[in-house]
Design goal:
17 strands, alpha+beta, 22 helices, Immunoglobulin-like, about 45% helix, five-stranded antiparallel beta sheet, five-stranded mixed beta sheet, 3 domains
Length: about 675
């Protein structure tokens, strides 16, 4: 507000610059210590598809309630991937946007509160451990802070200050913010609240224009939802399901999560259930001090709302909105842009207090599982309110000497909180970078980038990634390496606990950390010639890179007369081990269908004694000439005389065998009969 916002002095600029440097250090420093797991990898893959012109996504990643997000976050993440196919610049991009959020929080506080309140708010936000954590990876919700602040800012500029451009821009900005992540839906009531507080600023044509622009931003998501059948009510009810074990109750969980998010407590959870105590031993227990931040925010909100409640209410204004929109669209306000009289301050304060309160109320009834990142949108509001409360405390004592001592005491307390929060966050980064944190922070990105650099330097035409997973984008290891190695012509994934592949040509084999891999059953395989080992964190198994297999990883294979199947696969042999049957196949070309494989144990009369089924290797990974080994957990009864093996597909609930054919393509049988050699 103009009368409460004198020109910015040099000292204030210096203080702001230092605060933004702190924000940048926590959000942009050591970007390699960031998580890069399935969600981040799938976001990168979508953004790369858009940046490289391979696809125009009409829907984003699936949300926690099994509803796909709109594609806005993918579009935003495509920007850094226009210039690089590495996730590191994109991680810095997220951090830079969050530094901008700190600057915007200062600007909003400077305009509507006071210079001192704005600096305190910006400092608290800059030092916030969760504010920094939610600014360091490729998550859609990590993009929210600058857009959330801009959404509220334009609402206040448009309706509290009578800025016409802001009233138009606000509505599409709100729509985009909600589409980035559904947690931002808590901002919608704030927009409606501004209409109720300043009904005379409503212009029917401007509102219609803003809503039309907002609707246009929804077009890609609407087209995608229609294409994928989400617009059908029956489909919506069937597919949009939360955890069936989740209890829909009224609880204080939302309040607890919002409180710890603002306070910066419980960051030890990132160390995981096995290591969090070790991390906590490294840092002082400052949780009681950190709790002063949300406490100050809550008390300030209560104070403001109490004062506003003692004056003219807003209920009557809300009742007048429809009349103003539909009957008197040309009413003009007397206040000039940027000049908010003192009596309007209560309205601004109500909006800021509601910004803090509404997200908590939205999830107090747990209609879905409530998680901490749902409260990212309220963080700027919390720090603005805490800053305003601290400013009021500093100004509370009038006499000079007590006031000076009071100021020094509060300043020292604020400095102590900031220093401890920065130390706690820095100690956390150091901790999760140096030791394994099962169930917590994933393997830091820089370890993965070192492996990626080595692979790309070799320019392989084919890479096989061996882990205990094989289906991207649903499994983590395939999702991660599919994104990181996007530039290569061929990257394929093998569940090495039950499958092995001998490629027809030269290839590299990347062994992911784990155990039970058929081609690397123990640590001795890492000492083989040509194998490069990449150590990870202390207590974490390493990655290994080596030339792909050129021989079958079986000690004794029984060859059979080749049996050709209609999908191009040819069964060429089998092996029997303790409690298992292995089938050996020679693959034809790529197959768009994913097949299931089966093997039955038959007695001499052809009666089935036992059977085992399992997914075969996904058909999109098949290459002509590759050898595929599939293991089945099938202890053979003593009277087994014959194996019956084959492939089939699942089409809905129907099973369809892939036929055995001759060289001309004529049908021979539904499967292959393999007499066991005595």
């Amino acid at each position: 507000m103009a009368e409460n916002s004198p020109s910015i002095r040099r000292g204030e600029w210096i203080a702001l610059a230092l605060i933004l440097l702190l924000a940048a250090a926590l959000r942009l420093g050591t970007p390699g210590i960031s998580e890069f797991k399935r969600d981040e990898a799938n976001m990168m893959a979508r953004a790369l598809d858009l940046a490289r012109g391979r696809d125009l996504p009409l829907l984003g990643l699936s949300s926690s309630v099994n509803i796909p997000n709109p594609p806005v976050s993918v579009y935003l993440f495509a920007v850094p991937f226009l210039f690089s196919d590495s996730p590191l610049p994109a991680t810095l991009y997220v951090g830079a946007l969050n530094v901008l959020a700190v600057a915007l929080t200062w600007a909003l506080g400077r305009r509507y509160l006071s210079a001192r309140a704005a600096l305190i708010a910006a400092l608290l936000y800059a030092a916030s451990p969760w504010g920094a954590i939610y600014a360091r990876k490729l998550w859609a919700q990590d993009l929210l802070p600058p857009f959330a602040v801009l959404t509220v800012f334009t609402a206040l500029l448009g309706y509290a200050e009578n800025r016409r451009w802001a009233r138009i821009v606000h509505w599409p900005l709100l729509a985009l913010t909600v589409q980035i992540h559904y947690a931002a839906a808590s901002l919608i009531p704030l927009s409606l609240l501004t209409l109720a507080l300043w009904p005379r600023r409503i212009r029917r044509r401007e509102l219609a224009a803003g809503l039309l622009l907002a609707a246009l931003t929804l077009l890609p998501a609407a087209i995608g939802a229609y294409r994928d059948g989400w617009l059908s009510p029956d489909s919506w009810r069937e597919r949009a399901q939360t955890d069936p074990d989740h209890r829909r109750v009224v609880s204080r969980r939302a309040l607890d999560l919002a409180w710890l998010t603002v306070a910066g407590t419980d960051i030890h959870s990132l160390a995981g259930p096995e290591q969090f105590r070790a991390y906590r031993e490294r840092v002082p227990d400052a949780d009681p001090l950190f709790a002063l931040i949300p406490l100050a925010a809550a008390l300030t909100a209560a104070w403001w709302l109490g004062r506003a409640g003692g004056r003219r209410g807003i209920a009557d204004r809300g009742l007048r909105i429809a009349n103003l929109i539909f009957r008197h669209p040309h009413i003009s306000a007397k206040a000039s842009p940027g000049d908010i009289p003192a009596k309007k301050r209560d309205g601004v304060r109500i909006v800021l207090a509601a910004w803090l309160i509404v997200p908590v109320l939205l999830f107090t009834w747990e209609w879905t599982e409530v998680v901490a990142h749902y409260f990212i949108p309220l963080m700027p509001a919390a720090y603005l309110l805490a800053g305003a409360g601290a400013d009021a405390l500093i100004a509370a004592t009038r006499p000079l000497r007590p006031r000076r001592a009071w100021r020094l005491g509060l300043t020292a307390l604020l400095a102590l909180i900031v220093v401890l929060q920065v130390y706690s966050f820095a100690a956390l980064l150091d901790f999760v970078d140096g030791r394994a944190t099962p169930g917590g922070f994933g393997t830091p990105l820089h370890y993965l980038l070192d492996i990626r650099a080595e692979i790309l330097a070799r320019s392989p035409t084919d890479v096989l990634v061996i882990s205990d997973e094989e289906v991207a984008p649903f499994d983590e290891v395939p999702a991660v390496w599919g994104a990181l190695l996007d530039a290569l012509p061929s990257v394929r994934f093998v569940n090495g606990t039950r499958t092995a592949v001998v490629p027809a040509g030269e290839a590299l084999e990347l062994l992911a950390p784990g155990s039970g891999l058929r081609t690397c059953p123990n640590a001795a395989c890492l000492d083989e010639s040509g194998t490069v080992v990449f150590p990870l964190r202390s207590g974490e198994p390493p990655y290994a890179l080596r030339p792909a297999l050129q021989a079958l990883p079986l000690t004794e294979v029984m060859a059979i007369e080749p049996v050709r199947f209609a999908n191009g696969a040819t069964l060429t042999g089998y092996a029997l081990t303790d409690g298992e049957v292995a089938l050996v196949w020679r693959l034809g070309g790529q197959d768009e269908r994913d097949a299931q494989a089966f093997v039955h144990a038959l007695d001499a009369s052809g009666a089935r004694l036992a059977q085992a089924d399992r997914p075969a290797w996904p058909g999109r990974y098949w290459r002509a000439g590759d050898t595929l080994i599939l293991w089945f957990a099938l202890p053979l009864p003593p009277q087994t005389a014959t194996l019956y093996a084959g492939l089939y597909t699942l089409e809905g609930t129907a099973f369809r065998n892939i036929e055995v054919i001759d060289e001309t393509g004529a049908y021979l049988a539904q499967g292959a009969l393999i007499p066991l050699t005595p």
